[in-house]
Design goal:
434 Repressor (Amino-terminal Domain); six-stranded mixed sheet; 14 strands; 26% strand
């Protein structure tokens, strides 16, 4: 079951530890676990006991019960279903980058067949094939952040589709063939009859953002099922922005992350140990 998740127990405690600028030695001392055992837990070569899970959760400011469910492989998100009367369709395009799957998406307005390409998964040819298969008209490229596994191949997509590309104003700019349109929190982009709202979700990157429309949110590497993206810039900003701008949405809103399976706001409020 754990393999369905992007992050396992070791990833979670490692991200929480590094995000709070704690060394393995500091966490080991505070949790009364040897540094060697803690290192092995982060590398998935040692399974923790229940008591160790709760102690680490206490030290790392995580929810112990939620962390235990992931450590013992007792939780993964329920399959996300397309609402029967939804005005939109989401197509997931998952492809390996460096041996690990990365997700890109098509957000399709069912009334007009216009579509947004969300991130690239570094596989522009695959995205173009999927566009052709679904016979939709791409009108925008939306970038959740600029890391290469989410933006490589962007110039090829831009030249092939002639789409305007959008990125947050605070995000470092990727290689591009055309001018980028900069976004800020609460900006709205029209995709056919769909109104897509920008939500700030920095922390993994300086200008990471999510795109929210109706019952779907495309969250990049801000939050995964049961975890968060690596807080490379600010752990506090990542946790607070996801809590305020994503987990404040209705429970049935589907979350489509840059890695791992889709989930929902309700699932993450109930099961994500970071919240």
């Amino acid at each position: 079951m754990a393999y369905a998740l992007e992050d396992e127990f070791g990833d979670i405690i490692g991200k929480a530890r590094s995000g709070q600028n704690m060394s393995q030695g500091e966490v080991a001392k505070a949790s009364e676990i040897t540094e060697s055992d803690l290192s092995r837990m982060e590398k998935y070569t040692l399974k923790p006991t229940e008591a160790q899970v709760y102690k680490l959760a206490e030290v790392l400011n995580l929810d112990g019960g939620k962390l235990l469910a992931i450590a013992t492989e007792q939780w993964e998100p329920l399959p996300v279903q397309q609402p029967t009367k939804a005005q939109l369709e989401v197509v997931t395009i998952s492809a390996p980058v460096g041996g690990w799957p990365v997700n890109a998406y098509l957000l399709i307005c069912k009334a007009t067949d216009e579509a947004a390409i969300i991130d690239t998964a570094a596989h522009p040819d695959l995205i173009l094939e999927v566009l052709d298969t679904h016979k939709v008209n791409p009108t925008a490229i939306l970038l959740t952040h600029s890391h290469g596994d989410h933006t490589n191949g962007l110039p090829q997509l831009q030249r092939a589709t002639d789409c305007q590309t959008y990125i947050h104003k605070n995000e470092p700019k990727p290689q591009t063939a055309t001018n980028l349109k900069e976004l800020a929190h609460s900006d709205v982009i029209s995709i056919g009859q769909l109104m897509v709202t920008v939500a700030d979700t920095p922390g993994h990157t300086p200008g990471g953002c999510s795109f929210v429309t109706q019952t779907a949110a495309f969250v990049g590497d801000a939050i995964f099922a049961g975890s968060v993206g690596g807080p490379k810039i600010s752990y506090e900003d990542e946790i607070n922005s996801v809590r305020d701008n994503i987990l404040s949405l209705p429970d049935d809103v589907r979350l489509f992350p840059g890695h791992g399976p889709p989930t929902t706001v309700g699932e993450e409020k109930s099961h994500n140990p970071f919240f």
